[in-house]
Structure formats: C-alpha cells, structure tokens
Task: structure prediction
Amino acid sequence: MDENELRRIAGRENIPVGILEKDYVLSVILIHLKDLGILDYLVFKGGTAIKKIYYSKTRFSEDLDFNYYEIGREEIFQQIKDNLNHSIKESGIEFTGTKDLNCSDTGLTFRIGYIGLLQHKNSIKLDFSGREKLLEPMYEGEILHDYKNLKNRGKVKIPSMSIKGILAEKCRALMMRAESKDLFDIWFLIKQGIDFDLDLVKRKHEGYWEKWDKEEYQNRLKTLKNTWKRDLESFLDRVPEFEEVKEELNEILHF
Result:
C-alpha cells in the first residue's frame, strides 16, 4: 500500500484522501488489536463497526468504539501503549504513541498518533466503555476492506455487537448528542432491513438521563437540519436529502 494506491481508491470512492487514509489506519489498528489478543475482552460497536463488519458501502468513519468486559481499563491502555511498535510492519503506518488519555469510572478514551501514507501527523480516537451490559449475543465478523496488502493476513474476525444492538445504541446516541452521523446510521440500517426493536432501544437507555422520546427526537431533527450536508459530505459519495431521511424515519420509528 502506498500513497498512489490510496489516492486511486479515494478517487473511486469519491471521498477525500485523508478520510480514506483514516479508514485504512482503522483496519490496521483492528488487526493489531486482534494480534494482541485483547479483543477477547472487547466488543466492537458504533458507526465504524457498521462499516468494518456489516456493510462496507455505508459512510466512512474515523474512530473506534468498544465495550470491555473482565479486564481493567488500565490494562487495556497499557497493553496497547506498550505494543504499538509491534503493529503490522508492511502497513506503511508509523505509530507515534498515545495521547489525550481520559479515564472515568465507566471507561476511558485516548488517541493513537500516527504518520500515515500521506506523510502527515494524525491520530485515531479509541473509546472504551465499561458500563454497558451485553443485551444480545455477539457477532464475530470478518473485517471488510479493499486493501490488498492487509488481505494477505487472511480472514481476521472481530467480536462485535449485534447489528440490532448497534441500531439501538445509535438511537440512544442521537438523544445524547444530536449528531448527523447517528441519524444517518439509524436511517441506513433501517434501509438495509434491520428491525427497529423498541424494547431493545428502551433497554439501551436504562441508566442514562436521556430517554427515547418523540418530542425530543423531533427537537434533534430541528438541530440537525441546517448542518446535515456539511456534517456528512466528507464521509459519503452522496449525502441523502435531509427531508427524505426525515420522512422515511417518521414512518418507521415509534416511541
């Protein structure tokens, strides 16, 4: 993999080459975590899991989210920090260390710095939550990507949250932070035929201040309408019209 190949794929996908480079680095980090054995204690989730495990043709993403079980947050951080230099040598990515560590009673976040194929400094955010219960069986899916040099590693399977669980968590995320990517992910998954499970959505809200509420949902739509295209255009070949998404979801979502 080199810069020319990266630019070729970015042109084919019609997205900025910097976003494509991050997508490549996300795959490298996932394979590295698999090699470390730490994924035995993690469950991959979020928008990146949708793209990397379930549907490769959805929006691009730029971070990694996990739940963790039967392991301490300090051990997670130390294992990753101490083994960055042992990551995939043929990837062409130089990892420069960890930064912006933030620990709480319920998890941790930090960033992994790197110099990529474009020879610029950048970083990937990793988020680990220890407060979530596993409400549905995990799915162990193969990483989806188009990077020939990484395919030489063979099939790399990642323990991941069920797609219905991810959809339910996206509903909760929309209530908590009102970001366009969450609304898009909800719409995209429902378009793929994933059932909207109201009971699971409500269970995902247990222990949080925010609730799955029709009035609050409509307030989130008002907030996102003006920033929708700007928020998503770097991560998609074509951003669907906001009104199209709104109308389709209004027919399906219930409270």
